[in-house]
Amino acid sequence: MGKMNGAQSLVNALEAAGVDVMFGIPGGAILPAYDPIFDSKIRHILVRHEQGAGHAATGYAQATGRVGVCIATSGPGATNLVTPLADAQMDSVPMVAITGQVPSAAIGTDAFQEADIRGVTMPITKHNYLITNPDDIPQAIAEAFYIASTGRPGPVLVDIAKDALQKETTFNYPKTVSLAGYNPVLEPKSEAVRDAAALIAQSKKPLLYVGGGVIKANAARELMQLAEITGAPVVTTLMARGAFPDSHNQHLGMPGMHGTVAAVTALQKADLLITLGARFDDRVTGKLSTFAPNAKIIHADIDPAEIGKNRHADVALIGDLKNILKVLNPATKAALAKSAPDLTPWLNEVYGWRKKFPLGYDKPADGSVSPQYVIERIGKISGPDTIFAAGVGQHQMWASQFIGYEKPRTWLNSGGLGTMGYAVPAAMGAKVGAPDTTVWAIDGDGCFQMTNQELVTCALNNIPIKVAVINNESLGMVRQWQTLFYNERYSNTDLHSKRVPDFKLLAEAMGCVGMRCEKPEDVDKTIEAAMAINDRPVVVDFNVHRDAMVWPMVAAGTSNDDITVARSMAPVWDSQEL
């Protein structure tokens, strides 16, 4: 190619990287790039807030497995991407963020709309760049996509000075990328595989502890094979919902602070945790010193820094999870063929817990709508192919508990950072990536008021998502903690959302169909009416009971042994189970 400016080189590089869509907002420093974007085959979706662009990129990435892309200008445009970048880093989501920077001569002078976004995001990105020479743009873009999508996925930021976008250069996109010091280990060591198989063959109480890494590695099929080979029960963390079918008999549900009694208890009483792409998060382990006291640990992860970070690993399997399972499965099968412990007592025990302590909820005595019922019915009526994106709070936990997930990449949420306002823009990104799939955002009235402006983006760009606002007119999870731990002193959690704003009218003002449901008997027909609309976004304001709580619960900082199934109610165990 001949001479061009840096901006054209940037757009050419994004096209060469395979980008088909990006979410963003122009501004002064990034403006040169928006001129060639006008002629590019890349679909640019003009969002209403940079945070929306970032979460849309992560939603797209989570639903498709491809790298999500967002673009913003310098200063406040770039800093508005900080939360989505931190979110993507915590949840290992492949994302590339392009930001404009003030001209290179002005960097460090406190120029208008200047922010050291590279410095700001250094701890919350997998890698980042500041480009001041237009000749460096293609190489930086190629490296950014390579780093974001290989090894442990994550966000990469490319900050480009305005003059680098304006200066003349020659486009030269690299055919291959090789980075000194960056060599993700993809294949596990054979001796570690052998040791893991031997441990599995010795275990009388094994448990498959499955994290989101299984979905990132597209290893659900191999996970199913391991489950069938071992016969071991399976738990799927909040980030792993859908990695293993909820309907499968070996599935115990989700562990953690609001996990099922069977999943939490199985972790505590197992003699071996076969840990696959999970990170021993504090929401899963509870008080770490009391977590799974009798269990040996097999820890499989692509990131060696995770091994032993929170819990000592007896066997470390470092590599791509799909590759690990491809060799671990036959090795385990061979080891079990020589000696297979009888798992019957263990399975009777864990399946007994599952039967004795199923998930459930009480219908409100005043006849109002139960939030759990609404979410359960949305899951049933929408079916297993639907993609669900949740905000953060009670509705997120109920959506993880009461919707059955049968397939990977059908459950999107902010698991690590816990970002309120994630659902609407993430659902938008997911719908762009999977346009033929029904996408529901399950949002709370608090979360919804943070990022609902992206419904305008959806309405104008033919992105017909569906949004269920679980409206309990309060910051529900915080209110639950105030109920349980602050003597019902509800300091600043009352949002009055059933009065202001009127979500139905707000939705209609943004070009969507607005609905409201206030009676249990209207829930099904309201959901069915929303399902029938596919030419515009739909928002349903579900007015639900205010004081519903999320159970079971392991209070923060306590042991998983102290799980409660309702207020001041712990499981009653048979004497032989203690």
TrEMBL record:
Superkingdom field: Bacteria
Lineage, uppermost ranks: Bacteria, Bacillati, Actinomycetota, Actinomycetes, Candidatus Nanopelagicales
PROSITE patterns linked: TPP_ENZYMES
Cofactor details (free text): Binds 1 thiamine pyrophosphate per subunit.
Pathway: Amino-acid biosynthesis; L-isoleucine biosynthesis; L-isoleucine from 2-oxobutanoate: step 1/4; Amino-acid biosynthesis; L-valine biosynthesis; L-valine from pyruvate: step 1/4
Chemical reaction(s) catalysed: 2 pyruvate + H(+) = (2S)-2-acetolactate + CO2
Entry keyword set: Amino-acid biosynthesis, Branched-chain amino acid biosynthesis, FAD, Flavoprotein, Magnesium, Metal-binding, Thiamine pyrophosphate, Transferase
UniProt-recorded name of the protein: Acetolactate synthase
Biological process according to GO: isoleucine biosynthetic process; L-valine biosynthetic process
Residues annotated as domain Thiamine pyrophosphate enzyme TPP-binding: 391-542
GO-annotated cellular components: acetolactate synthase complex
